[in-house]
Specification:
The chain is α/β, with parallel strands linked by helices. Helix content is 28%, strand content 17%. The protein is built from 25 helices and 31 strands. Helix 2 packs across helix 18. The longest helix has 19 residues. The structure holds ligand MGD (2 copies) and molybdenum atom. The site of molybdenum atom has 2 residues, from loops. Belongs to the prokaryotic molybdopterin-containing oxidoreductase family. Keywords: Metal-binding, Molybdenum, Oxidoreductase, Periplasm. Its cofactor is Mo-bis(molybdopterin guanine dinucleotide).
């Protein structure tokens, strides 16, 4: 047995298959803080949730394509690869001829696996582009709202998201870190594409010892490691904007705002000030006003504002805050507040977005450009904002607004998914099931019988990253890792590349798709994109890794802008930070007005819905896995309570409901219900519960209490609505719910094995 290198989104590793056929995994030797998620990889090989052979839904096989309510409820019939290829190629051909390529939805959002060549979405798009294209999905679930908003406010998004002050700069220069959403350590093991050295735990350790004063703003104390001392402001979820406005009003009322900075570097502060002081709507947004909304005492708000004005202050906002209804506002208000402090562009001061959301935010080192599989050009221009998938399927021809334009949903006949799990990532899963009944055909490539595979017509089993050859690295990685094949493919699984090669040959584009290359030849070809200075591919492959050139980069867009706002004008219409945006004002959206504004969401504790559903659910990222990936793995399973996903609930809220630690509870609202295992925790503020995403959706048919997920997927509870007409971003982070002890006969969780 040889131990071989590979990498994952949560870390590089070495692995071998032992005598019992089990995968043994150990972290990369250079990793100072390996991720506990590595253990989940043990569930990869031969797990009973693997898709063993191509499978076709019986109803589709017998009656042919068409809308079908039984999708997701039917049984599957295994077929040969040849039959599967004939069916998929024939159906693609039919759709193209009868409806045109825009009737194919190839957005296929999702994280798939690390590895530059076998990146499932790139493979899918390369293939679809060669056969006439597809309707695309624009943006991300991660920061889709900020991606649309930030260009209006500061001209572009990338610099804000990925090129802010580095952690060492913050540790050295920042005096006060005001962290909206904290710096959740659990998230920092993950970087898309791979990560060799986890440096964040070290940075957090340095932060703890640095004496930086920290204000943790958020409903969940665990969003900052307990080893990092902080003052906790347990704000009501979804009200951060009101808190920021209260802070801004205090700065303004006490003359603590930096008028020179606002004059020289910003536009539209006066309108914003008029709004703060009540000139716009008669409501003064002072600390007392903010206190009533946020439940943070007014005196604390005033004191915090004064402290912010006195210190080198970094305001950070996690991405979770924009994954909510009106999620544009906390990001825009955070920037306005930082502008009032006049520290944007100073080392360790200003505004940061996503510190604590991803392993590479605030990381040092250059952005490495690792070669990727060319996708070609999509001849179809049609797209949707990615999180509008169910709306699109349910309303063909329907109109909606997006970033200043009115658009029409295309009529989708075929949905093609490879490398994502919409029955993990999308909101209101009961609605999504209805939406998935609409197209003629759903094709899914998956290694596992996820809920998305179960809701397909044709499921094509794919290899996992340990069953094929590739190479991978993250955006700011230190190493390019040779991903060796560690085990043979499970069952009849094939690489996404092999599957598309089979389809391409049936559709007459095989030479264009493969360019005549084997997998190994593709790897060699892509590797050449690194230039002449690197060792030969064979040497790289034998060594198992390549150390990437590193350099310190802490020169931010805003530092240049600060040095000279004319030479380095921002790419906004005014060249300045737009605290008020004439462009956004021109769109006339009441759900995203011209400047940062407090807008009540539907799901918040201060609104009328809270009478029926009095607990605020935080549906955040799981600490025990990446999204839904390897939910059947040991790290993920070890944290389940009574076989269900764990829901954290404050002891007072639990006591009021007769719930004890370890009880199975039913979490519900008017959209759906799921079971979960109660964990009592004082780390939450009262009236907040936390149930992370990622438990594989396991709907119980005909349960007396209505649609019920036996396993604990919070997306049965979240609302399927865009952030606003501006960004139409995902709003899955929040939902109002009720929780009760579940005393009925407990339905088993069955999603972890083949259907
Ligand atoms: N309520 C709520 N919902 C959310 C969020 C939230 O905060 N709250 N967050 C959102 C965010 S930020 C994100 S990014 C999304 C994540 O949503 P997704 O990215 O869709 O979630 P994953 O579980 O990573 O799905 C990846 C799927 O690809 C499969 N896969 C892995 N490797 C391969 C491969 O090589 N080939 C193929 N064909 N398949 C492969 C995996 O088995 C898995 O099923 O969730 C979103 N959903
Ligand atoms: N272990 C692990 N790490 C991950 C991922 C994973 O699945 N697992 N996913 C990765 C991906 S794709 C992404 S996009 C990032 C996402 O990064 P984020 O979106 O930042 O992560 P979340 O965990 O969803 O949310 C962070 C914290 O925000 C807090 N929060 C929620 N609502 C509010 C609010 O209204 N106000 C305040 N002040 N705080 C609030 C929650 O308590 C939560 O723990 O994480 C990445 N990292
Ligand atoms: Mo994400």
């Amino acid at each position: 047995m040889t131990i071989l290198p590979s990498t994952s989104h949560w870390g590089a590793f070495l692995a071998e298959v032992d005598q019992d056929g089990e995968l043994r995994v150990r972290p990369h030797p250079a990793d100072p803080a390996p991720s506990p998620l590595l253990d989940n990889l043990k569930a990869t090989l031969g797990h009973r949730s693997r898709v063993a052979a191509p499978a076709v839904r019986r109803g589709w096989l017998e009656h042919g394509p068409g809308p079908d309510e039984r999708r997701g409820r039917d049984e599957f019939v295994e077929v040969s690869w040849d039959e599967a290829f004939d069916l998929v190629a024939g159906e693609l051909q039919r759709i193209r001829t009868d409806h045109g390529n825009q009737a194919i939805y190839g957005g296929s959002y999702g994280w798939a696996s690390a590895g530059r060549f076998h990146h499932a979405q790139s493979q899918l798009r390369r293939f679809l582009n060669l056969v006439g294209g597809y309707t695309a999905g624009k943006g991300t679930y991660s920061f889709g709202t900020s991606m649309v908003l930030l260009p209006h406010v500061v001209g572009e998004a990338h610099s804000v998201l990925f090129n802010g002050s580095t952690w060492p700069t913050i540790v050295q220069n920042t005096e006060l870190l005001v962290a909206f959403g904290g710096v959740p350590a659990k998230n920092l093991f993950v970087t898309p594409g791979g990560v060799t050295k986890h440096t964040m735990p070290g940075h957090l350790h340095d932060l703890a010892r640095s004496g930086v004063d920290i204000a943790l703003v958020g409903p969940f104390r665990a969003d900052l490691p307990s080893t990092v001392e902080a003052r906790w402001y347990p704000v009501r979820p979804g009200t951060d904007t009101a808190l920021m406005l209260g802070l801004a009003h205090t700065l303004c009322a006490e003359g603590l705002h930096d008028k020179d900075f606002l004059d020289r570097y910003c536009t539209g502060y006066d309108e914003f000030e008029r709004y703060l002081t009540g000139g716009e709507d008669g409501v003064v947004k002072d600390a007392a006003w903010a206190a009533a909304i946020t439940e943070i005492p007014a005196a604390d708000i005033v004191a915090l504002a004064r402290r912010m004005a006195r210190s080198r202050t970094m305001i950070t906002v996690t991405w979770s805050l924009q994954r909510t209804q009106h999620g544009e506002q906390p990001v825009w208000a955070g920037i306005a507040l930082a502008a009032m402090l006049g520290q944007i562009g100073l080392p360790g001061g200003g505004f940061g977005h996503g510190y604590g959301s991803m392993g590479d935010v605030g990381s040092t080192g250059p952005d490495v450009r690792i070669p990727a599989l060319p996708q070609g050009v999509n001849p179809v221009r049609e797209f949707i904002p990615v999180a509008r998938i169910a709306d699109m399927l349910l309303n063909p021809g329907g109109q909606y607004e997006f970033d200043g334009s009115t658009r029409t949903y295309p009529d989708i006949r075929l949905v093609y998914w490879a490398g994502g799990n919409p029955f993990h990532h999308h909101q209101d899963l009961n609605r999504l099931r209805t939406a998935f009944a609409r197209p003629d055909t759903v094709v899914v490539h998956e290694p596992y019988w996820t809920a998305t595979a179960r809701n397909a017509d044709i499921v094509l089993p794919t290899t996992t990253m340990v069953e094929r050859e590739d190479f991978g690295a993250g955006r700011r990685d230190t190493h390019l890792i040779a991903m060796h094949r560690i085990a043979p493919p499970a069952g009849l699984a094939r690489d996404d590349y092999a599957i598309f090669t089979g389809l391409a040959s049936r559709m007459g584009v095989s030479a264009e798709f493969t360019e005549g290359r084997t997998v190994r030849q593709w790897l060699e070809h892509l590797y050449q994109g690194l230039g002449d200075e690197v060792p030969s591919f064979d040497d790289f492959w034998a060594a198992g890794e390549l150390v990437l050139p590193q350099g310190e980069t802490d020169r931010t867009l805003f530092a240049d802008f600060r040095s000279d706002p004319d030479t380095h004008a921002l790419p906004t219409p005014s060249g300045r930070i737009e605290i008020t945006s004439a462009t956004v004002a021109g769109f006339g959206y009441d759900d995203c007005p011209s400047h940062p504004t407090w807008l009540e969401p539907e799901d918040w504790l201060g609104g009328p819905r809270a009478q029926d559903f009095p607990l605020h659910l935080i549906a955040n990222q799981p600490s025990t896995r990446l999204h839904s990936q390897l939910d059947v793995g040991p790290t993920s399973q070890a944290a389940k309570v009574a076989g269900r996903e764990a829901i954290r609930i404050h002891p007072a809220d639990a006591a009021a409901r007769g719930i004890a630690d370890g009880d199975i509870v039913r979490v519900f609202n008017d959209r759906g219900a799921c079971l979960a295992g109660a964990v009592l925790s004082e780390e939450l503020r009262e009236r907040v519960v936390q149930l992370p995403t990622g438990a594989w959706f396991d709907p119980v048919a005909d349960h007396p209490s209505g649609a019920l997920c036996a396993h604990g997927n919070p997306n049965v509870l979240t609302a399927d609505r865009g952030s606003s007409r501006l960004a139409q971003g995902c709003t899955g982070q929040h939902a109002l719910v009720q929780v009760e002890r579940f005393d009925g006969p407990v339905p088993p969780v069955t999603v972890g094995r083949r259907p």
